[in-house]
Design a protein that fits this description.
Blueprint: H1 2-29, H2 33-45, H3 49-57, H4 63-66, H5 68-75, H6 78-89, H7 92-96, H8 98-102, H9 104-114, E1 118-119, E2 122-127, H10 130-142, E3 147-152, H11 159-173, E4 177-183, H12 196-200, E5 204-208, E6 228-231, E7 235-239, E8 256-258, E9 261-266, H13 269-284, E10 305-311, H14 319-330, E11 334-338, E12 342-343, H15 346-357, E13 361-367, H16 373-387, E14 392-396, E15 399-401, E16 405-408, E17 412-416, E18 420-421, H17 422-426, E19 430-436, H18 438-452, E20 455-458, H19 460-464, H20 468-480
Parallel strand pairs: 3-4, 4-5, 8-15, 11-13, 12-18, 13-14
Antiparallel strand pairs: 1-10, 2-9, 3-6, 6-7, 7-9, 10-19, 11-16, 14-20, 16-17, 17-19
């Protein structure tokens, strides 16, 4: 009798604590309803343990204070932004460049939501496989004379990671300024000692949101997912490739690794450098020095128009998602999308449906090999919903598809680190290049069409015939999609 009474008291206490946790989620966090309901269900079915999950994955109490300095830094761009607004609002723009005028609203959106200034003195090369990308990266790293700034979500302790770290150490010994920024979650299994040779050689490394204990990170929900590298203000890289052997297609699990990365020469490097310096200052706790060497004057290099757009927990607006939405809404002929994780919010999902129902050719490719099962099952559940609206959905079979790419009408496109999922839209620190160039977009579209050769089409017939077990997995994963 005593034991049962004790159990009842414990159960009542647990229930009361859970109610308090639920109130904290609803009234303190003030998340969107879908996310709030998801967390309430976690708390309901996993009392106390659910709140521990919330502390690791859902807490968002210090966002404003944590990133206040970064917001102030962006305010220093006021003069550049005002000139850009004047340029985009100029009526002569319609007469001088009808192409830019057609998409000036997208450019204004990126400018006003993220201070993303437009540049057109750029030469851009596309990489769709790891070997070519890393060969180019190593060549530019070896030839660096002034500085190397690298920021990667994952920097593996393997053959590729060691070979690049060796180059960084060599350049640091030569007197080149070397700064390497990596993410605490992405490099959770990489020992600190791995980066020690760079420090000894005179370079610097810093961890973005480091775990306070080995393998324990209370900020694991905020991931610096950016992959950028700037060298001497002359060369820059942005896209989906991290640093590791698997990105060379050497993983037994995934095999060939299909990604999209850009090699940029031109004025857009300035925007990438600004983002790196702001991230470095926060992570390394160092004052940023905006030295002239980081922003050199450049000769005419090309004609590709670019905006470098960022988003993250420190952003007032979901800038990359809003840019995607604007592009989808502008499409008249076609929308092509590649993404490893497809978990759209309601706005993106409805926009794609509307576009397809309006006669736009909407095609989406996701991997057939999941690296995160719950994310994969959630993705296929959304794919099934889009099929009803006439969207063409495909799964890539050649290897693992990690490309983050969106294009419309063969005219403008976006390549970067952001997936088409809620995490990339709201939680991760992401960065994308929005491309205003028909030739470059056509090249990206060509790669997309080539990828279709290695895809299976997901039709209404084969989707409806999937097993009950798969449907159950999709239903559970779909329910958890706001927090995946």
């Amino acid at each position: 009798m005593f034991a049962s009474e004790l159990f009842l008291r414990f159960f009542n206490l647990l229930f009361f604590i859970n109610i308090l946790f639920a109130f904290a989620v609803v009234f303190i966090e003030r998340k969107n309803p879908a996310s709030t309901w998801t967390w309430l269900m976690v708390l309901l079915f996993l009392p106390s343990i659910g709140f521990i999950f919330y502390l690791f994955l859902g807490q968002n109490l210090k966002r404003t204070r944590m990133f206040k300095l970064k917001k102030e830094e962006k305010e220093n761009l006021t003069s550049i932004i005002s000139k850009q607004k004047e340029f985009l609002n100029n009526e002569n723009l319609t007469k001088t460049n009808p192409y830019l005028s057609k998409y000036s609203d997208i450019m204004k959106l990126n400018l006003c939501s993220d201070n993303s200034f437009y540049t057109n003195n750029n030469k851009v090369t596309i990489f769709v496989d790891g070997k070519a990308k890393f060969d180019q990266l190593k060549e530019n790293l070896n030839n660096a004379e002034s500085y190397i700034h690298m920021e990667y979500y994952i920097f593996q302790n393997d053959n590729l990671g060691k070979s690049i770290l060796d180059i960084l150490c060599k350049k640091a010994k030569e007197g080149v300024e070397v700064k390497l920024l990596f993410d605490g979650m992405g490099c959770l299994k990489v020992p600190k000692s791995f980066f020690a040779p760079l420090i000894k050689a005179g370079g610097k490394s810093s961890c973005f949101f480091p775990p306070f204990l080995p393998y324990i990170n209370l900020r694991l929900n905020f991931r610096n997912h950016r992959k950028i590298c700037t060298i001497d203000g002359k060369y820059a890289f942005i896209g989906g490739f991290n640093i590791g052997d698997e990105y060379l297609g050497l993983s037994k699990k995934f095999g060939f690794w299909r990604d999209t990365h850009l090699f940029i020469q031109g004025d857009a490097i300035d925007a990438m450098e600004l983002h790196f310096l702001m991230d470095w200052r926060y992570a390394a706790k160092e004052d940023s020095t905006f030295d002239d060497k980081y922003f050199p004057h450049r000769p005419h290099l090309g004609k590709t128009g670019l905006q470098i757009v960022s988003s993250g927990p420190d952003s007032t607006f979901n800038s990359i998602k809003n840019g995607y939405l604007k592009m989808i809404g502008k499409a008249e002929k076609n929308i092509y999308i590649e993404t490893p994780y497809f978990i759209p919010d309601d706005s993106i999902l409805e926009a794609l449906k509307i576009a397809s129902l309006s006669g736009v050719d909407v095609r989406i490719i996701i991997p057939s090999k999941p690296d995160h099962p719950f994310v994969y099952w959630a993705s296929t559940s959304y794919m099934g919903e889009l099929l009803e609206s006439g969207v063409k959905c495909y799964t890539y079979n050649k290897g693992f598809l990690h490309s983050k790419f969106l294009s419309i009408d063969g005219s403008i496109s976006s390549v970067g680190t952001a997936n088409l999922d809620i995490r990339s839209f709201t939680l991760n620190f992401e960065i994308n290049a929005f491309i205003y160039d028909k030739d470059l977009t056509s090249d990206l579209d060509y790669s997309f069409m080539d990828d279709l050769k290695y895809c299976d089409e997901l039709t209404v017939e084969n989707y409806t015939s999937r097993s009950i077990i798969v449907k159950f997995k999709e239903s559970i994963s779909r329910l958890l999609s706001p927090i995946l």
